[in-house]
Specification:
The chain is mainly alpha-helical. It is built from 12 helices and 4 strands; from the N terminus they run ααααβαββααααβααα. It has a domain at 2-181. It has helices at 2-6, 14-32, 35-57, 62-81, 97-100, 108-126, 128-138, 140-145, 150-176, 187-197, 209-228, 233-251; strands at 86-87, 102-103, 106-107, 178-179. Strands 1-4 form a two-stranded antiparallel ribbon. The chain has a two-stranded antiparallel ribbon with strand order 2-3. The protein is globular, with a radius of gyration of 18 Å.
Length: 261
């Protein structure tokens, strides 16, 4: 979600994309083994491409474009799973150990998290794509005048977001040993909360991956505290909503927005 918000856009479809990824993984692991994870991630890439093209070629606001695809993937997830969890049997559990196992008593998921962090930081800081994403967020018209391929980089950002959402779904399916249309419930709100809490401005151009990492640490510390005192999971969603409102109010650059709609 970081790259999308850096654009000054939003992607509301990440939770159902992740849920679809868990279902694809659970359905295909018995027959495809490790390749099932690749198929799930490729689905995320395709989902991001579709949302990106609707947004850029259809000239539809990202909020509406992703809201529409959110509905599509949610419906498809419930249809494919028949609204019931799909379990990965113990006979196929060895395919999941790259996530659920550990190395030197450190969970593999920690190594995966830092690998994704470093990869996305490299993309943000050392590629033309990363520089253009920030430039578009800071000033789309100026970037266009300077010769930037606005639509291409926007679409690529949605593809990256979809791929990472699907990868998150793969991780969830490995941990839960199942796939479900509800596997990623709450992911959307939490993802946006940790991005904006880290200091990435919703108006675009300001922020980045490491700020999101700081936001992640804050949000998960808060979540751990709420779980310790027995705060209801649904009430936690309300807390994330408050976090988003407060963080946006503190970080939005109002000088760049003459009219608030």
């Amino acid at each position: 979600e970081t790259f999308i918000i850096l654009l000054g856009s939003i992607d509301l479809s990440i939770a159902p994309v992740a849920a679809m990824s868990t279902i694809i993984t659970a359905m295909l692991v018995p027959s495809l083994g490790y390749f099932a994870f690749v198929v799930a991630i490729l689905f995320g890439l395709l989902a991001g491409l579709i949302t990106g093209l609707i947004h850029t070629k259809g000239r539809i606001p990202s909020f509406i474009a992703s809201l529409g695809t959110m509905g599509i993937w949610t419906g498809l997830a419930f249809l494919l799973s028949n609204a019931t969890p799909i379990t990965i049997s113990t006979a196929n559990s060895h395919y999941l150990t790259w996530v659920t196992g550990d190395f030197l008593s450190i969970p593999n998921s920690i190594f995966i998290m830092f690998a994704v962090l470093l990869l996305t930081y490299f993309i943000e800081s050392y590629t033309a794509f990363g520089r253009y994403v920030k430039a578009i967020g800071a000033g789309e018209k100026a970037t266009f005048v300077a010769g930037g391929a606005i639509d291409r980089y926007k679409t690529m950002a949605f593809m990256l977001c979809g791929m990472l959402a699907a990868f998150q779904g793969v991780i969830i399916s490995c941990i839960m040993a199942s796939g479900s249309a509800r596997a990623a419930d709450g992911l959307q709100m939490k993802a946006i909360a940790l991005v904006v809490l880290g200091g990435t401005a919703v108006s675009g151009g300001i922020g980045g991956v490491f700020r999101t990492f700081i936001g992640t640490l804050i949000v998960f510390t808060l979540e751990y505290g709420m779980n310790m005192v027995g705060v209801n999971s649904w009430f936690q969603q309300a807390v994330y909503g408050v976090i988003i409102i407060v963080a946006v109010a503190l970080t939005i650059d109002r000088s760049r927005i003459s009219i608030i709609k």
